[in-house]
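Q: What structure does this chain adopt?
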Amino acid sequence: MKLTLRVWRQKNADAEGAMSTYEVDGISPDMSFLEMLDVLNERLIVDGEEPVAFDHDCREGICGACSLVINGDAHGPERTTTCQLHMRSFKDGDTIDIEPWRAAAFPVIKDLVVDRSAFDRIIQAGGYITVPTGSAPEAHATPVPKADADFAFEHAECIGCGACVAACPNGAAMLFTSAKVNHLNVLPQGAPERETRVLDMVAQMDAEGFGGCTLTGECATACPKGIPLMSITSMNREWLRATRKAGKR
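A:
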């Protein structure tokens, strides 16, 4: 396959960025999208040019590090992570636009790499449970109803890639935050911090400068792990419950 790549290049956070055009040839349909970028970078290095900086780690759709807007879509045309997107999703001769996540809370560091530490701070605000010291409890000592376990596991699948933010026209982080709140709040282990968790994590999310949620649904459409849109309404109920309880104290 021969492709024309229009790639966002930006030296650092303070520099002006722009799209640069590159031609790549000999791309196999079985290559992953990141392997195709590796081919581009190898050529740039041989030519004495600066390679394109992009995020990646496991390349197995698990870590959530890869983050590219491809032809206007977060992670590209398939509902998967960028690293699991393969070049067979494109045609020979295609022109592909490659950009970083676009959100005020995700400033560009270099080229296609953005700073997603805002997500870390949201989790630090309440994405944990109280763990008593001592020996580990017996596995079945705390029964969990299957419906609650299924709900928790569904939300625990969030890998924090940020596609929800990149796809949202408002740059909101509600789907991410709701996934982190819901998967703990529904379990008995998360009960001690149930109210403070949702209040603190939502407050931190707002402090990070993410946009407001208007339930357009683009976040759930782009999510590679299928976190449902109803996750947001579940968190809203938790937030209202916690707010009312705090007001009665």
